Amino acid sequence: MVVLNKIYTKTGDAGETALGNGARVAKHSMRVNAYGTVDETNATVGLARQHASGDMDAMLGMIQNDLFDLGADLCRPDMEKDKDAEYAPLRMTDTQVARLESEIDVMNADLEPLRSFILPGGSALAAQMHLCRTVSRRAERLSVELATTESVNPAAVKYLNRLSDWFFVAGRVVNNGGKDDVLWVPGANR
């Protein structure tokens, strides 16, 4: 259970923050950048939800919860020490990845194949989905970079990879099933 009585602690005033295992690291560390960008992704999803309703809003709500799980996963290094932890750290699972894949398949089933790249836009919600896609892709790049030097849960990286695909397909769905997609015209303004 999380209890937040006091919001500011002054413990970060010197440019450090605590990870999930209590270790102190620089706020600019690769790990903090990775989970901070996951948090930024979550904020963009919150903006998208302002335009969503029904099943789309429900799926976005599940993604927001997953992103908190993902942040908790990334802020806890040393996966090999999980068995020695006082409590089992929260880790992303392949089940969460599979759910995204299933949702992508369902959403994509009724879309016409693309014959051109699309530009972010169309409806307000589609534009927000593309913002979510690009920020989640940055979170993925940072997590992959982190994994070159530190322990990272492979399911966390897979989730981020599928998530950006999810946002792309969802952007097409909310753009009138792709009918209102804005197509890229190569060299149109030469």
Number of domains: 1
What's the CATH superfamily, by name? Cobalamin adenosyltransferase-like
Largest sheet: 2 strands, antiparallel
Percent of residues in beta strands = 5-15%
CATH topology: Hypothetical Protein Ta1238, Chain: A
Strand order of the largest sheet: 1-2
Please name the CATH architecture: Up-down Bundle
Helix-strand blueprint:
Blueprint: E1 16-18, E2 24-26, H1 30-49, H2 54-74, H3 94-108, E3 118-119, H4 124-147, H5 154-173, E4 182-183
Antiparallel strand pairs: 1-2, 3-4
Task: Give a quick set of tags describing it.
190 residues, mainly alpha, Hypothetical Protein Ta1238, Chain: A, two-stranded antiparallel ribbon, 4 strands, 53% helix, 5% strand, transferase, corrinoid adenosyltransferase activity, CblAdoTrfase-like
Quick structural gist:
The protein is mainly α. The protein is built from 5 helices and 4 strands, in the order E-E-H-H-H-E-H-H-E. It has a single domain (27-79, 92-110, 117-181), classed as Cobalamin adenosyltransferase-like (Hypothetical Protein Ta1238, Chain: A, Up-down Bundle), CATH 1.20.1200.10.
Detailed description of the structure:
The chain is mostly helical and 190 residues long. The protein has a single domain, classed as Hypothetical Protein Ta1238, Chain: A (Up-down Bundle). Helix content is 53%, strand content 5%. It has five helices and four strands, in the order E-E-H-H-H-E-H-H-E. The chain has helices at residues 30-49, 54-74, 94-108, 124-147, 154-173, and strands at residues 16-18, 24-26, 118-119, 182-183. The strands form two sheets. It has a two-stranded antiparallel sheet. The chain has a two-stranded antiparallel ribbon with strand order 3-4. Strand 1 and strand 2 form a beta hairpin. Helix 1 runs antiparallel to helix 4 (124-147). It is elongated. The model has no long low-confidence stretch (mean pLDDT 90).
